[in-house]
Amino acid sequence: VEQGKVKYLGLSEASPETVRRAHEVHPISALQTEYSLWSRDPEDALLPTVRELGIGFVAYSPLGRGFLSGSIRSLDDLEENDFRRHSPRLQGENFERNLELVDRISEIAEEKGVTPGQLALAWVLHRGEDIVPIPGTKRRSYLEENVAASELEVSPDELERIYEAAPSGAASGDRYPDMSTVDR
Questions:
Q1: How many other C-beta atoms can be found within 10 angstroms of the C-beta atom of residue 39?
Q2: Which tens digit of pLDDT belongs to each residue from 45-78?
Q3: What distance in Å separates the CA atoms of residue 27 and residue 4, rounded to the nearest whole number?
Q4: pTM of this prediction?
Q5: Helix (H) and strand (E) counts for the chain?
Q6: Long-range pairs for 178-183 at CB < 8 Å and ≥24 separation?
Q7: CB–CB of 31/55 below 8 Å?
Q8: CATH superfamily of this structure's domain 9-165
């Protein structure tokens, strides 16, 4: 940065306190963290902090690691070496509770004539122009589905139904085994 070789800095999975400290040293351009109907924690303090400081927000895993697509109904739907098999959210009772959340989203999506994944991605896109979701995509068909989500109109009434179906804190289980974040 001091030599002029780096113009922009970004952070990943940082707490609001870390973002503020880093921003005091050098302007932070973007913060990347998980954000979806399945992981709404950033709404509590992180999103307000980056908005206050004028920092862009990059939402990774906006489809809840694929879970919000509705295609994962059991661990058998995942390959043997898939890291998601070890996710606390996909274990035992957590898995069952989280399927209920996906089913509520799927019901709204079906009424709208879209996939659950499209509705989940459209929800992130409707959270603000300062939020840029980066969904992972394995197949061209998923890419096309994600692009279509960017054109999806979601009415205020539909947004309210989505909030009711997946309120903050509705996901059962931690995002990662032994989850830890700096300053948390």
A1: 20
A2: 999 999 999 999 999 999 988 888 888 787 777 7
A3: 14
A4: 0.87
A5: 6, 4
A6: 181/13, 181/14, 181/15, 182/13, 182/14, 182/15, 182/18, 183/14, 183/15, 183/17, 183/18
A7: yes
A8: NADP-dependent oxidoreductase domain (3.20.20.100)
Which residue's structure tokens are 């959340």? Answer: 101
**Please, what is the Cα angle at 50 between 160 and 174, to 5 degrees?**
65
Most confident of 25-29, 69-73, 175-179: 25-29
Domain limits, the chain:
9-165
pLDDT band of residue 1 (cuts 50, 70, 90) is confident
Percent of the chain's residues with pLDDT above 70: 96
Strand pairing class (56-60; 9-12) = unpaired
